[in-house]
Amino acid sequence: MVLVDDLGQAEAIVEVNELAHALGQRFWPGGLTLVLRLRADASVPAALIAGTDTLGVRMPDHDTPRAIARALGPLPTTSANRSGEQECRDAQSVARVLGEQVDLIVDGGPSRRGVPSTVVDCTGARAIILRAGAVDPSEIERFSGAPP
Questions:
Q1: 111 and 39 Cβ atoms separated by less than 8 Å
Q2: Lowest CB count within 10 Å: 25, 87, 136, 141, which one?
Q3: pLDDT in tens, 109-124
């Protein structure tokens, strides 16, 4: 997954179709991750796409990661937790759980929400909800015609 500051950053690396554009306009910034096809000319680390031609893109509702993305470009990220464990919501929790396994922790204040993002596959003609989360699936359904 990558975090972006604006839709233009997303469009530089993934194919933002009409559906994805509309969902991004409606729910970004916020707890929505869109799964989109990589652009043919995009250069992303193989670990981000795990052998697929798709990538999750999110515009967070938090100033710190968006400012970093604005300065550096799309940010490759992952959840700040060990698999199967609760996500960390502040820098101190990340340090306690991941410790020396990370080179840098940016403390932009605590996460405003404890709910992961809603993940929506927008690679086809219809939105497919892959994971329910911060954006209520019924909102996605009403807005895009996707089944919950």
A1: no
A2: 25
A3: 887 766 889 999 999 9
